[in-house]
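Dear colleague,

As promised, here are the two records you asked about, laid out in our usual form so they can be pasted straight into your sheet.

NAME FIELD: protein one
SEQUENCE, THEN STRUCTURE:
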Amino acid sequence: MGAVVLVEKWPVLGRHGPAAAWLRIWTDLGRAPRTIDAYARGLAEYLEVCEREGVDAVTANRAHVAVFVRELTSRPSKRGANVVSIDSGAGLSNATIQQRLVAVRLFYDHLIEEGLRESNPVGRGRYTPGRRFGGHERGLVPRLVKLPWIPDEQQWRLVLAVAAEEPIRNRLMLALAYDAALRREELCTLDTDDLDPGRRTLRVKAENTKNRMERVVPYSAPTGVLLANYLAHRATINRARGRLFLSESRRNYGQPVTLWTWSKVVRRVAVDAGVSRFSTHTTRHLCLTDLARMGWKLHAIATFAGHRSTESTLRYIHLSGRDLAEKLSKGMEQIHAWRVDMLTRAEAPSQQRGHR
């Protein structure tokens, strides 16, 4: 997405020269369009608050940024009750607020580099040697680190029951999304040339990944059968090479399936299954958690997922409970068994007294 398009989408950016210049630099550096779009939105919302408050964004201080934070944490959420506090029913999610603040912080980093100001009013959590209590300085908004949601067995079966009635394209997309732990964009941008049916692997091109890291991942034999059937069906729509998944709607017949089309498909499946939290990213979360449950090593899961850092992968290890289970088994086995034995022994006399 070019800088001109961004200014057309958010006119407030065009009224602030430094903001437009900063986004133009990021665009010229070849950052991912979705990243640029997210930064533009966050900065535009901040600049609108500055205009409303009569504040010059270039010279704004921490108190002015705090007004923006207050607006974010009190804004009505489109999804109802949210995460500012339990049952607060207001405010954007913590992750969204953090994303908005990243855009503003990077904008002020740019102003500092350009010599337009000396400090950044957006605090960031960082380690400071010599400080008491661990030396960690908090950012403007505490960062909440939540484990990803995954369905339980009953919810998963409900989703599968609905998915079984979907067209073969949608069933294959769900299977690959889980089998290869694909992100939404990685799935929708697969090309026919990315497949190697002989080895049952697929290539996820760097330009379609979140962190620009190419990887080759396997898929299972059942998914391979589904793929073969879909390729035969696809040939009735378009025999040319190109995007793997094609639209069959009257309006876009034969065109590549878009991210938004796939999101709508998954949303419909989730609603019909009565599992509203199921999303396009759930299959990836579930796959990586299942790999952790099976005992895969941390670096192997990180490679499979395409994570640049194992810190992201650790969430799935924690979610699976694998490390905790191993530690409990190895370090506390005897003590645990003794305590359980004593607890069960202690229950008998009380039961006896109850029958007297």
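NAME FIELD: protein two
SEQUENCE, THEN STRUCTURE:
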Amino acid sequence: MANSNLIAISFTAEEVQSIREHMSAIRELLGSKCISLTAEERREHGRIGNKTENWSRKVMQYMNEQPGFNPTFIDAEETQRDFEARETLKPIFNELQALQDMVDDTMLILGSDLYQANLSYYQNVRLMAAQNVNGAKAIYDDLAAQFPRNGRKKKAE
């Protein structure tokens, strides 16, 4: 099996340090404003999606233009602050999501390259162990644990 290298990248120590510093700064800025929910808490709340987003903008416009229709139990000023904060975070979220997708895609391809190279090495060691090459059997036995054979039945003797 030919090993096709789909990506070839590396990072300098300075680049890694710079990325970490920038991420730390972003985390610090957002950490004082944003919250973290548990999985259960996330299920308890609705989400404004693409279809609801334009409707929500219309509602906010009406709330501002026709305040006489606002329910008395809703704090219109707080609702406006929530709306503005969400509008501010939306492009930041989109940019962070695009970065996450890019890093995730890169990790996928790096993992694929790595796994293919690892499989090639393993198959080569297996072949060398079968040929009784000195030291190959110990490596093969160690690496073979990744592929348990408990699902296969041995041929009847």
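A couple of things worth noting about protein two: The radius of gyration is 28 Å. Residues 12 and 21 are 14 Å apart (CA to CA).

Best,
R.
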